[in-house]
Amino acid sequence: MSTIRLLAKISRCACHNSITHGFKINSHKSRNLLSGQVVQRVVLHPPMVNGSSNIIKTEAQETNKENETFKEIPFSRKVKHAFGFDKDLRVPYKELEIAGYRAWLSIIEFTDYQEFCTALELPDTFNTWYLMVELHVWIIMTRLILEGVEGRYFRNVLVSMMWKDVESRMQEVEEVSFNDRKHFLDQIKHHLHNAMLYYDEGLLSDDRALANALWNILFERSDVSARSMETIVMYVRAQILFLDKIDSMLLLSKGCVPFRTLNGQEVNNKKEKLTMMLQQHIVPK
């Protein structure tokens, strides 16, 4: 039995959240990787949003001068910024690290995965948990693409935290060996790039294309009701619109993203959760 199938049968409750407060940035380069069937793009009207996660480059993005900074950041500039010498950034580098960590906590704290499993008729497994996390990371990435080089720093921390948390949860599963765990991590890293391509294509097209992307990635081409598909498409559109309204400096400096429920309502204890995140002592490595 493959590692992915094995993990798909393991209940999410069997894994525990063991994120540490220290972390390092890993450089996750965007790659144009797409294995399997390519989603067919159907354009009936202009795109509903201004940006994507930047894995698919639109004509508007390529001509935008702000996105010209999205090249490989020189190591010398990272060193300057780490010591506070890089004056070009709107938010200090260490604050961007902490904001990226808080964004990951937002996904964990504000997303009710049990609600998603029940409403969308998804199995309550580790695999489903990862697919839901992957979707919300992409939603945040569509907002970060508008923030230039600061958004890139932020994104790298967010993705790095996702891998650390996924690996820490997998270590709690005794049925998965070290080699299988390593193989699975390699697979889902490629899966992330593929998912970004599908989601970007759907976001920049119409709702049918977005539904097709969600069916391929989130539902893994399984049977799904029209009501469930409509619910998740409306949720994704609403969350992206909600993030577009967040002030850039507030997002980059604080990193808190108060996701709403599937029905568009605010999460219970929203203020308490935000206060907890802002007061938590985080020491980047």
From TrEMBL:
InterPro entries for the chain: Ubiq_cyt_c_chap (IPR021150), Ubiqinol_cyt_c_chaperone_CPB3 (IPR007129)
GO BP, one annotated term: mitochondrial respiratory chain complex III assembly
Residue intervals of the Ubiquinol-cytochrome c chaperone domain: 119-254
Segments crossing the lipid bilayer: none
Pfam families: Ubiq_cyt_C_chap
Top-rank taxon, per record: Eukaryota
Listed GO CC annotations: mitochondrion
Stated family: Belongs to the CBP3 family.
Protein known as: Ubiquinol-cytochrome c reductase complex chaperone CBP3-like
